Amino acid sequence: MKLKVMMSFLVCLLSLPAHAAWSHVNLHPASATVSAGFGGSGNNQVGGAVIGGVRRAGMWTSTSGSWNDLHPPTASYSDAYASSGTSQVGYAHFGVTTKASLWTGSSGSWVDLHPTGIGSIAYGVSGGSQVGAVYAFSTVVASRWSGSSGSWVNLNPSGASQSVAYGVDGGTQVGYARIGNDRAGLWTGSSGSWVDMHPGAASDSYALGVHGSTQVGRAYVGGDSHASLWNGSSASWVDLHPSGASQSVAYGTYGGYQVGSAVIGGAQRAALWTGSAGSYVDLHSFLPAAFTFSLAQSISSDGVNYYITGSGRNSQTFRDEAILWVQPVPEPGTMLALTLGLASLVARRRRKKSA
Q: Is residue 148 a part of any domain in this protein?
């Protein structure tokens, strides 16, 4: 009995990184009326803030005071959606045209990725690759770039009436294609590389984020949005929808973690999972009571901390505010010591039983 209790305790310790307390940082810039966090890379976060009545793309380094305005001087409004290393992507709107955009840390570094059509948006970046969508040919098509408008590649699969790419990691791009219905899938650089990940139980599905061999997003099951996890195929689909939730979605993934939101009791709450519906962690519970709803949109690490970027509604200030959740990365020695301790305990118990 003692062994079972101690083993249960150790299991709790081994799952500590996901379930331990997360500290929060309010990233809302002092001069902003509204702000939102959309993406992150290492200890950098990207998003947007309304300052002087203008929606402006920007980035942070984990504090509100670190706000760095990326808004191109002649744009009417802009947002940054994702970052990778020193690169940030999103859009900037000029006149009647929305243009997929690339930055490297400053307003003056802005690069116009818009290739053709009436508009474009970049949603994801990894190294020198950017992905998103171009509104052209009387539809919207999933798109890939490598740093310039001239590098544009149309990813729209054969037979699809429309498509969008939302995320990229290395040589893998994820999003959806409308082939009869909306179907989550992935590419590896070309329209012909499309892999359909649509779950058989779903009416529509969308892959929204990717890291390594893991993809996350949403699938509509019985009319409700269910946070979803894949490993490259339809058959690998895992339903992350928490018990008691009416809706859920996963936007980002890093290592063994997935982040998004779940609607519970009528309130949208930022969420964290580690591979199953039962692993759900309510990130909203780590925010001050003044926040009435929240969502998490990306997770990253600099090797020292995990950083979850998102937003929340502050009922005291009556505005949406960019939020960052932070937790230290466990030292490898700590986890090794716990594992060795379990092995030693089991061995001792077995020797006593055989004596």
A: yes
Q: How far is CA 201 from the centre of its chain?
A: 24
Residue 55 CB partners (closer than 8 Å, separation 6+):
48, 49, 77, 78, 79
- 175: domain CATH number is 2.120.10.30
Structure tokens at 327: 């937790």
Band (pLDDT 50/70/90 cuts) for residue 20 is: confident
Q: Does residue 107 form part of some domain?
A: yes
Q: What digits encode the pLDDT tens for the residues 134-168?
A: 999 999 999 999 999 999 999 999 999 999 999 99
What whole-number distance in Å separates Cα of residue 322 and Cα of residue 169? 24
Count: domains in the chain: 1
State how far the Cα of 151 lies from the Cα of 65, in Å rounded to an integer: 36
Kindly state whether residue 335 falls inside one of the protein's structural domains.
Answer: no
Q: In which residue are the tokens 């590649």 written?
A: 153
Query: Given phi > 0 = left and psi -120 to 50 = alpha, else beta, which region is 292?
Result: alpha
Let me know if residue 37 belongs to a domain: yes
**Model confidence over 275-289: pLDDT tens digits?**
999 999 999 999 999
CA distance 179 to 169: 24
Domain membership of residue 320 as a residue range: 21-327
